[in-house]
Structures are given as C-alpha cells and as structure tokens.
Amino acid sequence: MRKTVVAASIFGALTAAAPTFADSGAYLGARIGGSQLSDACNVSGAPCTDSAFGAGLFGGYDWNEYFALELTYEWLGSYETSFVDGTNSRVQDGNMSAVTLAPKLSYPFNDEWAVFGKIGGAYAMYKDVKEAALMGGVGIEYDFATAWSGRLEYQRINDFKDSWFETDVDTIWLGVSYSFGKAAAAAAAAAAVTQAPVEEQPPVVEAVVMTKTFEQVQGQETFALNSTKLEESKKSDFDPVIALLNEHPESTVTIVGYTDSSGPEELNQRISEERAESIASYLESQGIDRSRMSVSGMGEANPIADNSTKEGRAQNRRVEITVPEFEYTVEEMVEKTQ
Q1: pLDDT score of 15
Q2: Is-contact 171 297, C-beta < 8 A?
Q3: Per CATH, the architecture of 201-333 is what?
Q4: Contacts of 192 (CB under 8 A, 6+ apart)
Q5: Under a CB-based contact definition with an 8 Å cutoff, are residues 173 and 32 in contact?
Q6: Does domain 2-181 match CATH 2.40.160.20?
Q7: Confidence bin at 6 (pLDDT 50/70/90)
Q8: With the C-alpha atoms ordered 129, 133, 139, 141, is the resulting torsion angle positive or negative?
Q9: What is the per-residue pLDDT across 11-55, written as a single tens digit (0 to 9) for each?
Q10: Do the first three CATH levels of 2-181 and 201-333 match, i.e. the same topology?
Q11: Distance between CA 319 and CA 65 in Å, rounded?
C-alpha cells in the first residue's frame, strides 16, 4: 500500500509540474553528495561497502518564499551489503537510487539566506529490492546571484526494507539551482527602467517657450550598508539634476524617501526621512538653495512593487527626485509646424 501511494504521488507531480516550468515559480537544480547506510554489514567476513558518492537532479515549484513542492531523482551510489535471513546469509552488490517527493518549507532570515525542511515519500531501489519509505531533510540555502541559489542539505531515507533487507540511508548534499521566476522578474525590472529616446526636430532659429521636468529614482545601493549616509561613489548620480537646477534657477525640486514594509513602521518612517534629507544636504552642498527644495519621507507608503518578494522589497526601498514642470524662454533651433 505504501509503495502504491508514493508511486501515485510521484506520477501526479510529474504530470502537474510539466507545464509549470516556464511559469514564475519553477526551478531546476543538480547536486552531489555522500551517503551512508546504517546496519548494512551483518555477515562476518563478507565484503561490505556501506558508504558511497552520489549525485542527483531536483526540480520544484515555489508558491511563495515559504512553501514549495520538490521532486528529486537521486543516484545514491554503489554498495556491497550483507544481511542475515533466518539461517541464510544474503550478500548483495549493486547501485542504489531513489525518487522522492516532498513539500519544502522555508524560513528566510534575510534577503539571501534561508533555512528549510522537507518531509515526504521516497521510492528507493537497490538491485531487486524496490520499496517505498519515508524521507526527511533539513538544510540551508543561499541566493548568490539573481536567479541562482546554492544549498547544503542533510537527508534521511528512513527504514528502507523488505523481508530480509533493512537500512536507513543518510546523505549530505551540496547543490545548486536556477529559478525561472527570479530570472523573469529581473528581466522585467530591467525593461521597466529603459527610457525611450528623445526625438530631435530639424532646427530653425526661433524664440520659443519651453517646458522642462525631471524624474530620478535612487535605490538602496545609493546609501552605505545599513545606513542613511550617501555612498561617495554614488554622488555622481546627482550630477544631472544639479546641472538642471543650476541652469534654471526658477526650477524647484521635490525629494521623497520610501522604504519597504519590513520592520517597525516608525523606524521605516525615520529611515525614509533621513535618506531624503541626506540627498537634500548633498544638493545644498553643491550650491542649490534650500528654499528651492521640498523634502519628506513616506515610510512604507505607496509601494511600487510586491513587498512579499525580495525583488519587490528592493524596488520599494527608494528615493524619488522630481523637478516639477516649469516654463522658460530661449532662442534655439527648432522645427516649425506646417
């Protein structure tokens, strides 16, 4: 009965997962490791190998950052084992493998690191022994690039047995995985900030009334780590708005800071105000009069992305710099309208 339930679950997962690997929650990975069998050498003097190198593939679907369903195929190595069956001795030499299916429960304790646990079913195979068993595991995962993660995991296939064969399989895995959803989110974010080119008209000398405006968004990388102080290397990002304000003394600038929804609301409000104030102070140091500035912090209000994801939180930690539209008169080369 146990074998039937596990096999049906694996088949159902394969069928359901096939169309989702192009969707936002799908991921694929590979891993290597070492396995150890327990109580697998029971005949005195018989050759025995109860530890081996292994490798495997895994795939799954993340519904959110806390819950996923994961399917694995594992080659657990080649073993020589010996067991006592009544008055007979049984010695077996062969490859061991398994297919597992389990929910993966994760707890992220920052934007890069998470711990996780799994408990589910395994269908294990060792030469002519093929049985269902329980499987569990715990591990730690690190997002080292936009769509790539590494993980270290301990796994046990518990009570893999038949009439004469009985062992537990303990494995330490080191793996890497690729998330299709994180890659798609990064590509969408890059596309969103692409600015359309400004079309230039053939020139004719004429006095015209012009209007200008300016918008700029600075992310969390503008500031030192865990600080509201500007990074020296990022100060050059403000050269365009400083040049505009110096060229047009009639213009004004609005500076508004925002945070994500992590942490206490009062702390987020203070951080948003202090980061906006840091930018205002730098503009003032570059000759922009304080009376031309409107400076405020909005805390976690007005999010532009989903705060339940790492990428969304990163987009929400920002300072928006806006020069409201203003008019000025110049003589320049413009194209006349027919």
Answers
A1: 44
A2: no
A3: 2-Layer Sandwich (3.30)
A4: none
A5: yes
A6: yes
A7: very low
A8: positive
A9: 444 444 444 444 568 999 999 999 999 988 888 888 889 999 999
A10: no
A11: 26
Greater pLDDT, 194 or 191: 191
Burial of 235 (0-12, 13-18, 19+ CB in 10 A): middle
Diameter of the chain measured on Cα atoms: 109
Pairing of strands 51-62, 113-126: unpaired
- Residue 318's nearest CA partner among 234, 218, 224 is 218
The domain ranges of the chain are 2-181, 201-333
**What pLDDT, in 10s, does the model give residues 265-313?**
898 899 889 888 989 998 899 999 999 999 999 988 999 899 888 888 8
Rounded to 10°, the helix 265-285/239-247 angle is 60
The DSSP secondary structure of 115-165, one letter per residue, reads: EEEEEEEEEEEETTEEEEEEEEEEEEEEE-SSSEEEEEEEEEEEEEE-SS-
Of residues 125, 129, 105, the one with CA closest to residue 117: 105
Report pTM. 0.51
pLDDT tens by residue, 52-99: 999 999 999 999 989 999 999 999 999 998 888 777 888 888 999 999
The tokens for 76 are: 């657990």
Residue 210 has pLDDT above 90, yes or no: no
Residue 187 above 80 pLDDT?
A: no
Torsion, Cα of 185, 187, 191, 193 (10° steps): 70
**For 1-111, where are the E strands, in sequence order?**
26-37, 51-62, 67-85, 88-108
- Residue 211's closest CA among 97, 88, 325, 75? 325
Place of tokens 């027919």: 338
pLDDT band at 198 (very low <50, low <70, confident <90, very high): low
Dihedral pair phi/psi, residue 222, rounded to 5° = -70, -20
How far apart CA 41 and CA 150 sit, in angstroms, is: 34
DSSP state, residue 220: G
C-alpha torsion angle, residues 234, 237, 243, 249 (rounded to 10): -80
> How far, in Å, are 111, 137, 217, 265, 274 from residue 269 at the CA level?
21, 41, 18, 6, 9
